[in-house]
Known about the structure:
This protein has helices spanning about 1-25, 35, 40-45, 75-90, 105-115, 125-130, 155-160, 160-175, 195-200, 210-225, 235-250, 250-260, 270-285, 300-305, 315-320, 320-325, 365-375, 380-390, 405-415, 430-445, 450-465, and strands at about 60-70, 95-100, 120-125, 185-195, 230, 310-315, 330-335, 350-360, 415-420. By secondary structure, the chain is α/β, with parallel strands linked by helices. Strands 1, 2, 3, 4, 5, 6, 7, 8 and 9 form a nine-stranded mixed β-sheet that branches. Pfam families: SBP_bac_1 (PF01547).
Amino acid sequence: xxxTKAITxxxxxxxxxxxxxxxCGGNKNEASSPEQASGNASENASETPSAQASPEASKxxxxxxxxxMWSNTEPQSKVITEAISEFKAANPGVDVEVKFNGRELFKLxxxxxxxxxxxxxxxxxxxxxxxxxxxHVLKLDDLLEQPAIGSDGKSVKDSLLPALMNNVKxxxxxxxxxxxxxxxxxxxxxxxxxxxxxxxxxxxxxSVPKSWEEFxxxxxxxxxxxxEPITFDDAYRDQFIGGYLSSAMGSDWVKALVTDKTGAMxxxxxxxxxxxxxxxxHEKGYFSKTIGGNxxxxxxQDVALGKSAMYFNGTWLPNEVSxxxxxxxxxxxxxxxxIPNGNDKGGQQGLSxxxxxxxxxxxxxxxxxxxxxxxxxxxxKAQEGMAVQALAIPATVDTPWPSSLAEAAVAFDxxxxxxxxxxxxxxxxxxxSGSVIPVFMELVTGKINxxxxxxxxxxxxxxxxGGK
Length: 468
């Protein structure tokens, strides 16, 4: 009797699996609207491009444990959940356990990997992962030749934005690993000025500023229209100082500046020019009146509320303030203006961009299924979901960007130099956080003038690096 029941149950399960798999071979059209993209996984199963999964996908089994850097309340988690549902429909023999850790993942993942806890796939900033977790990540080069999910026969490698793939590959050499790809890029970002188009129109500004002179003119027009031109808060103030200096001299020069043990570079004419320009922005009232005390997310909320016009921030900004800004907010973006008297190593040829990444634990006991799941997470439909539901930059080629990031896409496409996070202003580590940024804030709030800034930074550098 037990044997008969077991056979019956097995037949039912097989029939159910056949029905699910059959449902995946229908309409291959991708979700093109919020309504389509936000449907549940079972409703969208017929639109899943699972027919393009690797030939052995349906034979995969076992368990895959995936740790995500998103919390289960963020829109990214919904897209991930939908992608996992589609993966499971195409691979019914695989059990997927997902843990939405939020940003706590960055604290938890290293101890987990070092203790041997089962984590097959995890999200992490690729640069940070290769610096801190390089003994735990698998080189993916051979796996990247597999067909991508939903990308018209492209390989996984060719389905993802070349700029991001090149960036990921370059990180391996920096980390001292064998050159190659150790992460699949996702959730790309770029750092630009984000602005309120309605306020620009109110001030009569008809085009975004490209030069510093045009930037100052825009600030003056905004001020006359009763709008505070510029804001930032403590989370991203490093971007502003790094953006100016790198636009003038390039990020390599900025790195040399903040790591100069003699302090002599702080007497460079460009530093004084920078300081005078910051002093002028303060004296002319172009900085927000609350900029000195802004704690994250105060500055970006001021932009969303229309109190301030511009914030030099990342492409995640429209999503982070979407609840405050509302659906009708008109976002625009532009690169940091070209600074005069530079060395031709900066300008708008450079852009600070990168991506979060999905990585595979090299000690995973189920690498084939784990990588197949990764393919779904960076597949065409999932990345379209990220663009629609999370207002994020999609990592796949030929995928439309959110309208709020349309101008960022232009900057992304034309950039030829990838500048690091903060444009290297943070390369001084404790010196950057303990001296460079605090003294910068003294300057922009009028506590010291340009000449005092130069003298103080030279002194601070000598004091910090003395004897090192």
